[in-house]
Structure formats: structure tokens, C-alpha cells
Write a structure and sequence with these properties.
This protein is mainly alpha-helical. Helix content is 75%, strand content 0%. α1 packs across α11.
Length: 219
């Protein structure tokens, strides 16, 4: 298992005096999210009927994984080489848009298929696949199937730790909801930095144990 409190403390130390670009990335992605989802959100709040997603909501369905991939690309650079990371890094990550969309659809399909059997197996598989975006952002030339397999390998034995890691942020998410999402400007950089540290820990641990090799991360 990994020490959640140590990971979170290390993440905050890493962010200290270096919030500018993480906040900017959060503001940009948050602004786009509001722009594309505002109509559907307002409609759901003032209507008791389920309405079909708008065109903007449909576009966001595909845009969200692109921004997620670009954000992961940014935070991997931020954690590894903080001084060399800027908003341009995030823009570079947008070049992985095809990988972002296809990997999202592939993982989503697999989770849905497992969930058809039972909810719990689907949830377990979702945790098992959770490092796929990190792996692809760090190794863009990898095939998606291989990245998913590597995610399963490096998370093996750590699924409960990963689950509890995200659960430990529950209180912060409640505060974010109470502040209408504004607290997310602080929470998103913190969570993304911490989850990147978790990924790097899992990868390094798997490499040291021989579960995976450096060659596995090459195309």
C-alpha cells in the first residue's frame, strides 16, 4: 500500500508557490465545461423531466476526454519537470486528442460490459483501468489495448488503496459543491497533482518488482 497522507502532503509541497499554471489550466477547462453544459444543467434543475442531451452536451462528451488527456499530459510534466512546465504544455497535450477520445470510448465500453454482469465487477475494473490515461499521456505511441493492460498490471494489489485515495477527497468535493464549484479551482490542481504522484509510484513499484519492464512502455 502507499501512504495517502504522504502523497497528499508531497503534492501540496510541490504546488507551493507554483499554482499559476495549474490554476490557469483548471480555469480554462472549467470555463469550457460550463459553456458546453450550462443549458443542460439549467434544464435539469428547473425541470422534473429527463431531457435528451443538447448538441453542446454531445460535443462535450467527446471534448471532455481530450481535455482530460491534455491535463494529464500537463500534470505529468508538472510533477517531473515543474520549472519547464507552462500552459503551452497543456496545449501540446491537445495533440493527443485522438488517443484521448479512443481510449475513453474503449475503457468506457469495457467498464459497461463488466457492469452488465454486476455493478461491483464494473467498479473494480474501472479502478483497474484508471491509469490508462496517465500511461498514454506519458507514452503516446503505445497502443490503447497495451496501455489498458499495463494499467491493470501496475494497479494490481492497489485497487483498494486507489479507491481510498479518492474517497479521502470526499470532504473537499462537498465543499466544492457548497461553493458552486469555485473551490474546484483549488481542488483540481491538488487532486491532479496527487493522482499523478500515485501513478508514478505505482509504475515505479511495478518496475522494481519486475511486474512490468521499461520495454513494456515502448511502442
Amino acid at each position: 500500500m502507499f501512504d495517502r497522507s504522504l502523497v497528499k502532503k508531497e503534492s501540496l509541497n510541490h504546488l507551493r508557490h507554483n499554482w499559476k499554471f495549474p490554476l490557469f489550466v483548471t480555469a480554462v477547462t472549467g470555463f469550457l465545461s460550463v459553456c458546453f453544459n450550462a443549458k443542460d444543467l439549467i434544464s435539469s434543475l428547473f425541470s422534473f423531466e429527463l431531457s435528451s442531451p443538447s448538441v453542446a452536451g454531445f460535443i462535450w462528451f467527446f471534448m471532455s476526454p481530450v481535455l482530460s488527456m491534455a491535463s494529464r499530459y500537463f500534470y505529468l510534466s508538472f510533477v517531473k519537470t515543474r520549472e519547464k512546465t507552462s500552459f503551452t504544455t497543456f496545449l501540446e497535450g491537445l495533440n493527443l486528442w485522438i488517443k484521448g477520445i479512443l481510449s475513453f470510448l474503449y475503457v468506457l465500453a469495457k467498464v459497461i460490459l463488466w457492469s452488465i454482469l454486476l455493478i461491483i465487477p464494473g467498479f473494480i475494473k474501472a479502478l483497474s483501468y484508471s491509469m490508462t490515461t496517465c500511461i498514454l499521456a506519458e507514452n503516446p505511441s503505445l497502443e490503447i489495448k497495451k496501455a489498458v493492460k499495463l494499467s491493470m498490471l501496475i494497479t494490481k494489489g492497489y485497487l483498494f488503496d486507489i479507491f481510498m485515495f479518492y474517497v479521502s477527497f470526499a470532504g473537499w468535493f462537498i465543499i466544492m459543491l457548497l461553493t458552486g464549484g469555485l473551490f474546484g479551482l483549488w481542488l483540481a490542481p491538488y487532486l491532479n497533482t496527487a493522482s499523478t504522484f500515485v501513478y508514478l509510484f505505482l509504475k515505479e513499484t511495478a518496475l522494481e518488482s519486475g511486474t512490468v519492464t521499461h520495454e513494456d512502455f515502448e511502442a
